[in-house]
Amino acid sequence: MNDEKEVKSFLGRFVEEFPAALDECSPLPVSPLSRKVSLEELQGESLELGLRLLTARGAPAVFSALLCHEALSQLLQNDLSPYHFPQEAETNLVDEQEVVLLQSEPVQRLFLNKLINAALLWHQNFPSPYPYPSCFRPCSVHAIKNTRRKMEDKHLALAEFNQLFGIQDGVERAFYAVFDGHGGVDAATYTATHLHVVLSKQETLQSDAASAFKAAFKHTDNMFRSKARRERLRSGSTGVAVLIQGQELTVAWLGDSQAVLVRKGEAVTVMDPHKPEREDEKQRIEDLGGCITFMGCWRVNGTYAVSRAIGDFDQKPYVSGDADCSTTQLLGDEDYVLLACDGFFDTVRPSLVPELVLNALQQPGDSEEGGDTQQSEEAVGLRVAQYLVAHAKAAGSSDNITVMVVFLRPPEQLLARDSFTETAQATRDSTSQDAPQQ
């Protein structure tokens, strides 16, 4: 099996680079996101760290997820009290005294050593078979800073949701998300690191993904509130996330990032983005005693140009942390789902997405002789997001732009269908012209 050969080849390279655990004096091969973390935050930050380390070294995605899950499971069985920050370090924040914080670098060194030890064991005794996702979905992603001073977007494509969290209930899951930060990247980074972790723990995940998503967004917002108080952070982030669970596609969103589902070449509305000028959002804010003012664009209380977001705690509850959700049954005739920040949708109407994606697929690319179907599908889809980002920029967008296209059927099938449609239309036109005039 090619996948198994690929994993074994990676393991050989990895154990050659890391033949033994890291000692206490050696620098970490990858930097932690934070200097200190709560026990709850440790899980998301450790998984992010491990995936970043393995991805940079070319590890197969499913294997990375399994290895990170194994290392985290072992880490959480350890006594972590030696890594606690002294409690008095946080006494200036009365409402945070109950939070136990860990020193990130030494505890992440322990996590990485668990990961290295697991890799060494698997290299000696390869675990076979191990669970692969039952279906492969090409995913095309591209993001640019554009004309802004900083890049404040984050995104996450996690086809290996079950493998990362050790879920074995027989229901296939994949998670995709785009987060658009403002006032700094902290809120977007935090949400991209923790939202999927919180979602995986929701008891209603399998029975009611929408309620699980709403609870996960709310809890992530509360988690970030604690961090923002500790570290005096003021940023915020809109976001849109998709969970494909069995034959259901659930979309959850805060703010004006959007998702568009395309079925049989037609855009399907699956959400209504939150904007301050949307009538129900305006009414909600005014009922709370706030206002919407126009200052180049519509703003909440003259400040933020978003009405819902993670963070932005100086304007809560006017800027709400409550996500909206919708669930769509997948019938098997869906083409793809596109997720993007407002930097894309500022210049591209959702109804234009199918035409643009088709144009992108029709662009000439490097031909690949041979190779398996999965590789050829990746090659065809890879350029799609780049094309869409370039189009939005050329149309006048100056904002950060992130676009993610998750194909629900092979891209070649979309091209073949379009080619068939054009041929059929040409045949009809020709028949009409050749028909005798009455």
TrEMBL record:
Keyword Phosphoprotein: yes
Keyword Magnesium applies: yes
Cofactor: Mg(2+); Mn(2+)
EC number per UniProt: 3.1.3.16
SUPFAM superfamilies tied to this protein: PP2C-like (SSF81606)
Alphabetized PROSITE patterns for the sequence: PPM_1, PPM_2
Root EC class: hydrolase
InterPro entries, A to Z: PP2C, PP2C_BS, PPM-type-like_dom_sf, PPM-type_phosphatase-like_dom
Protein family: Belongs to the PP2C family.
Protein name (database record): Protein phosphatase 1E
Species whose genome carries this gene: Anabas testudineus
The organism's taxonomic lineage, starting at the top: Eukaryota, Metazoa, Chordata, Craniata, Vertebrata
